Amino acid sequence: MHEGIKNKELLLANISSAFSLTDKEIEELISLFAERKIKRRGFILHQGDVCRHFTFVISGCLKMYAIDPSGKEFNLEFAAENEWISDLNSFYAEKPTTVYIEAMEPSVILQIARPDLIHLYSNYPKFNSTFRIIIERKYMELQNRVLQNISATAEERYSNFLHQFPTLASRLPNTQIASYLGITSEFLSKIRKDLAHKR
Amino acid sequence: MHEGIKNKELLLANISSAFSLTDKEIEELISLFAERKIKRRGFILHQGDVCRHFTFVISGCLKMYAIDPSGKEFNLEFAAENEWISDLNSFYAEKPTTVYIEAMEPSVILQIARPDLIHLYSNYPKFNSTFRIIIERKYMELQNRVLQNISATAEERYSNFLHQFPTLASRLPNTQIASYLGITSEFLSKIRKDLAHKR
DNA sequence: AAATACCCTTAAGATATCTTAAGGGTTCAG
DNA sequence: CTGAACCCTTAAGATATCTTAAGGGTATTT
């Protein structure tokens, strides 16, 4: 399909930003990713399931979140176009996940299943580095977020979010951003008013 | 040296918990790690330096922290015996770090330099998975910590810390634990009193 | 096009957490 | 051995953040 090929080029561009790949590697990589369209509010991972895929977002936006005993949702991660998302713990250990991954917009994704990724790792060693680097980037992002959480006020965290994810900031409902920042949406509303007055 | 060999066995045990290694891999791995003793308050990484080593802790305990403009320290990570520590961002990008890594106790560590690790990656592909898994574990730990930070009260976070790191909890000054949890040491003191009364 | 669910804002009162200050205990360095 | 530095605790007042409640706007579904 014409569109399907274009989508896989996005994947290639993402992966080969750090590594150049041979034709054979490209062919194999592309053949192992399957495209899926997800409706708004559709789930690609549900608490209790085993996370069986590593997911790359072509378009749209997904969120990964946990639900506490009282039913509140806490957003752990957003993934929009050109980003990766997966519950690594469940994926590698093949054990039931404690989180949800849900589409916030109609989305198109590319997924690779665990056995196929392992096949890539063993037959094309370069992909070990590729995926190691993807995870390292996400690790640094998380570490930075932890630092924010323990050192910055809610207003500072929100300002940083606006700078770091300007596109997300204008696409997502503030309720979702509040959940990501660890504050209530009412308090975010107050922060936004305060910031507006500072101009 | 007798003790040096024993220390490298700890490293081997840590790495081969997920993978079995050949004699050749073991020999090469061991030859590339160098042992260092660090005094209490000694630094192995200072803001502005490039992080040139991946570090495994044999004994003692290190902390990684950032300092904000007002001079306050925020603990990002502790690493005691049998744990890994490094500023991945500085290490892989070879750019100056924004953090410090300092020994809180007299410590013995094993370090591998970046070129040697890259040599391992290219000549013994298995080590790609090995180190990918080390990072994945740390990633999940961070993700769990973010969830705590955005969803739990300070008292809950402290209780969790006690359960998750019982050894650290009794070894570290509470000021250091407070900084890790993102609260003041005075407030931690109050939390400890409240918890004691709940018994 | 109506009905429903979702979203944003405001504000008042409640709670969690910080700041400052002070005192006493313990460890470390000279 | 001794002063200095660090650590822990307590408490009072200040500030940040949450909870609840309510109203009006916007998007989604029927």
For the structure shown, list the relevant keywords.
DNA-binding; homodimer; 2 domains; four-stranded antiparallel beta sheet; Jelly Rolls; globular
Helix and strand topology:
2 copies of one chain form a homodimer.
Chain A: H1 2-15, H2 23-32, E1 34-38, E2 43-45, E3 53-59, E4 61-67, E5 73-80, E6 84-85, H3 88-93, E7 100-103, E8 107-113, H4 114-123, H5 126-151, H6 154-164, H7 166-171, H8 174-181, H9 185-197
Antiparallel strand pairs in A: 1-8, 2-7, 3-6, 3-8, 4-5, 4-7
Helix pairs in contact in A: 8-9
Chain A binds a DNA duplex (30 and 30 nucleotides) through residues 40, 153-155, 173-175, 183-190, 192-193.
Q: What's the β-strand tally of chain A?
A: 8
Shape of chain A: globular
* Greatest interface and its participating residue counts: A-B, 33 and 33 residues
The main β sheet of chain A shows up as: 4 strands, antiparallel
Q: Find the CATH superfamily of the largest domain in chain A.
A: Jelly Rolls
- The CATH class of the largest domain in chain A is identified as Mainly Beta
Give the mean pLDDT of chain A.
Answer: 93
Q: Approximately how much beta-strand content do the residues of chain A carry?
A: 15-25%
Order of helices and strands of chain A: HHEEEEEEHEEHHHHHH
Quaternary structure classification: homodimer
CATH architecture of the largest domain in chain A: Sandwich
Q: CA-to-CA gap between the ends of chain A? A: 50 Å
Unreliable residue stretches of chain A: none
User: In what order do the strands lie side by side in the largest sheet of chain A?
Assistant: 1-8-3-6
Q: Domains counted in the coordinates of chain A: how many?
A: 2
